[in-house]
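User: I'm putting together notes for a lab meeting next week and I want to include a structural view of one of the chains we've been expressing. I don't have a solved structure, so I'd like a prediction I can at least talk through. The sequence is below, exactly as it appears in our construct file.
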Amino acid sequence: MLKKLVVLFIMIFSISFGENNNSEEYLKGKIIKLESINKNIDDSEEEVKEIRNYQVEILQGSDKNKIITVEFPIYKESAYNIQLRDGEEIVLYKDNYDLDGVKYYITDADKRGPQIILVGLFVFLTILIAKLKGVRAIISLSVVIGIIYYIFLPGIAKGYSPIGVSTFCALLSSGTTIFIMTGFSKKGIVAILGAVAGVVFAGGISMYFSYKMSFTGFSTVESLNYISLLKGIKIKELVSAGVILGSMGAVMDVSMSISSALTELKMSNEDITKKELFNAGMRIGGDIIGTMVNTLILAYIGSGLLSILFIYLQKNQFPLIRILNFESVASDILRAFAGSIGILVAVPVTSYLSGIFYKEKKNSKKEL
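Assistant: Thanks for the context. Below is the predicted structure for the 368-residue chain, given as structure tokens.
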């Protein structure tokens, strides 16, 4: 889930603070009303069923507040159509090079308003439920976004190793997030080290199996359309880089949960031995693993649901040997299981480190 939230916040961050040097001009507008409908009376194989003429108010740009009429095609195939309503905010494309002069086209409904509400609801509930820790969580998430936006993405774009950059960013993000949440304490240090071990192990596993499965890095046909933008980028390493970043959130959750639980256990029983603490951590980790592994794998299934549905619908056309060798399928399998292995590794490492850090009886509650 952390990966999806980070992607969402990065898109919003890019829109809000990124440089606007786009060659195409898109503006915000609002539907005032539907003026007329021109039916297509041709019974040929024409795809357009009708042309709707909308009265639109331009809300930004040089023509701000101007009222114009914009043609909007309605296709026979309903899946291609965007449902527009009076008063709805839309995205307009301004064509400055049309033979008849400047012309506007409706490209989509403006989704930014609902997105802002959704993000605001997330922030509000986080702070309402978790109070001060919720504020810290929002701050740490903002820091992670900044690390990815200012370090991870530029590093890959400049041709640096995606695996190396993602490992550095994962370590930096893990350390920063846990430090913000717990401060400089033994509990935080143990959680950071456990998370680092799990993430690095997951990355190593993904590197090895990416090589064994001969990944090209182009997991979808659509990605080949952008090959000109990817010159100088080490595409083959992107799968492993995705595993490292994608598993980071789940591994941090596990490490922090175990470290926090063992800290409380040590505080309640100063005489507990290193072995007892380790065994307690393994039992706690066993309970966490069942749901956390499911969470990570289901998250990857959910993110690739459309591709999985296409494969299911064509299951009679492709044998299993062909399906499992689609790079998109193989890369999703690698991401899900390598990330889950990272979670598994984090459990014994965090439990063992807790035993080492808390073995001395003189440790005070304040130090914990």
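A couple of points you could mention at the meeting. Confidence is low (pLDDT under 50) at residues 1-5, 15-20, 362-368. Residues 218 and 224 are 7 Å apart (CA to CA).

User: Perfect, that's what I needed.
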